[in-house]
Design a protein that fits this description.
Layout lengths: L1 E3 L5 E4 L2 H4 L8 E6 L30 H15 E11 L2 H14 L2 E10 L8 H9 L10 E9 L3 H10 L3 H5 L12 H6 L10 H8 L3 H4 L12 E3 L15 H11 L5 E4 L6 H8 L3 E6 L2 H14 L7
Parallel strand pairs: 2-9, 3-4, 3-8, 5-7, 8-9
Antiparallel strand pairs: 1-2, 4-6, 5-6
Helix pairs in contact: 2-3, 10-11, 11-12
Length: 313
C-alpha cells in the first residue's frame, strides 16, 4: 500500500526490501534511518538474539546482519552521488559489524561517528538522569547516549576517468591555478587521489576541461556552525505511540546540514513518522516505508497533522 500527495511525498506500508525497489535509483539526497538495533526492545527489534545482542539463539528466519546488508545495498543505489547516509544505533559491537558490512559491500565512505548526548545542562530530564549517576552498586558507566554514523561517496574517480576519456593531462588542468610565484603545483593531483575535495574556485578549471560540476564531485554539506561530533538533544518525551522515537529537532539538524529545500529524504524504517514530520517542517520531500500496520497508521496521522494532504485518506 502507498499513499502519495501532490508534492510527491510518499509513504509505503510494506517490507522495505520490497518497497525500496519502487524508489528510483540515484533520486535521493539523504538516507536517514533508525533501523532495528536488534537489542530486544520489542518484537520488531529481535532478529533472534538475546537482549545483549551478542549471543545467537535458534532462529529460522533471516539474520539481522544479512537483513541489514541487503538494506544497505539497496539504499546505496537510491542515493545521488553527492548524497549522504545516516543511521542510528546504540550498541557498539553491533554497530562495528554494520560498519564493516557497509565498507565491504558498498562504496559508501564513513565521514563521522556522532554522539547524541541525552544528559546535558538544560536537558528537561537532566535531574532524572542525574539520579542514575549517583546510585550505588554500579559496575560500569551508565549509557545516556546513542550514536549516528554518517557516510557519503568518494567521487574522485570521476576526475581521472573523464580526463582519460578526453585525453587531457593533469598538467593541463594544474596550470590553470598556479602558485603566487607562478609555478605549477599539485593542487589537481591531490583531488584525483581523494586527498582534497574541490572548492568553488578549483572546480572552475575542472568544469572547463572535464565538464564535471561541483555537485558531481563534492557531497552536499552545509555547516550550520552549531555542532561538533557530540550533539546535545532532549529525548522526544511525547513518544506518540512509539517506544524509541528520535527528536524532530535532531532530525532537522541532519536535514539542514545535508540537503536543500525540495530535496528527497528517504527513511525505510519510518516508525512513528518523525522523519516525515521533520521533512514537512523543513520543506523537503520524503519517501517513507514502514512495515508495521499500526506504526504506519501512526506515521500517516502525525505527518497529516504537520501538513494535511488532500490525497491522504
Amino acid at each position: 500500500m502507498m499513499l502519495q500527495d501532490e508534492k510527491t511525498n510518499q509513504l509505503y506500508n510494506g517490507d522495505c526490501l520490497i518497497e525500496l525497489d519502487k524508489v528510483e535509483d540515484k533520486s535521493v539526497q539523504l538516507v536517514l534511518i533508525d533501523p532495528p538495533y536488534n537489542i530486544g526492545k520489542d518484537d520488531w527489534d529481535n532478529f533472534g538474539v538475546t537482549k545483549k545482542g551478542y549471543k545467537p539463539k535458534p532462529y529460522s528466519g533471516e539474520s539481522y546482519y544479512e537483513f541489514m546488508e541487503k538494506v544497505f545495498i539497496k539504499l546505496e543505489c537510491k542515493l545521488k552521488d553527492n548524497g549522504s547516509f545516516f543511521f542510528f544505533h546504540n550498541d557498539f559491537r553491533i554497530m562495528a559489524k554494520l560498519d564493516m558490512i557497509i565498507e565491504e559491500k558498498t562504496k559508501l565512505i564513513q565521514k563521522n561517528f556522532l554522539v547524541w548526548n541525552k544528559r546535558f545542562d538544560g536537558a528537561k530530564k537532566k535531574g532524572f538522569l542525574d539520579g542514575f549517576i549517583v546510585k550505588g552498586g554500579m559496575s560500569c558507566f551508565n549509557k545516556m547516549a546513542e550514536y549516528m554514523l554518517f557516510y557519503t561517496f568518494d567521487n574522485s574517480w570521476k576526475l581521472s576517468q573523464n580526463r582519460s576519456k578526453l585525453g587531457i593531462t593533469q598538467q593541463e588542468i594544474s596550470k590553470e591555478i598556479k602558485s603566487k610565484t607562478g609555478k605549477i603545483t599539485g593542487w589537481y593531483s591531490n583531488l584525483e587521489t581523494g586527498k582534497n575535495l574541490p572548492t568553488r574556485e578549483t572546480i572552475k578549471p575542472i568544469e572547463k576541461h572535464l565538464g564535471l560540476t561541483y555537485d558531481d564531485i563534492v557531497p552536499k554539506f552545509y555547516n550550520q556552525k552549531i555542532n561538533h561530533s557530540v550533539w546535545d538533544y532532549d529525548l522526544d518525551h511525547k513518544k506518540e505511540g512509539h517506544i524509541t522515537p528520535k527528536p524532530i529537532e535532531l532530525l532537522k539538524n541532519i536535514i539542514f546540514h545535508t540537503t536543500d529545500e525540495g530535496d528527497i529524504v528517504l527513511d525505510c524504517f519510518m516508525g512513528s513518522g518523525s522523519t516525515g514530520v521533520a521533512c514537512v517542517n523543513t520543506n523537503r520531500k520524503f519517501i517513507g516505508i514502514e512495515m508495521d500496520n499500526e506504526y504506519y497508521k501512526l506515521s500517516k496521522n502525525r505527518i497529516y497533522k504537520a501538513d494535511p494532504w488532500k490525497e491522504f485518506n
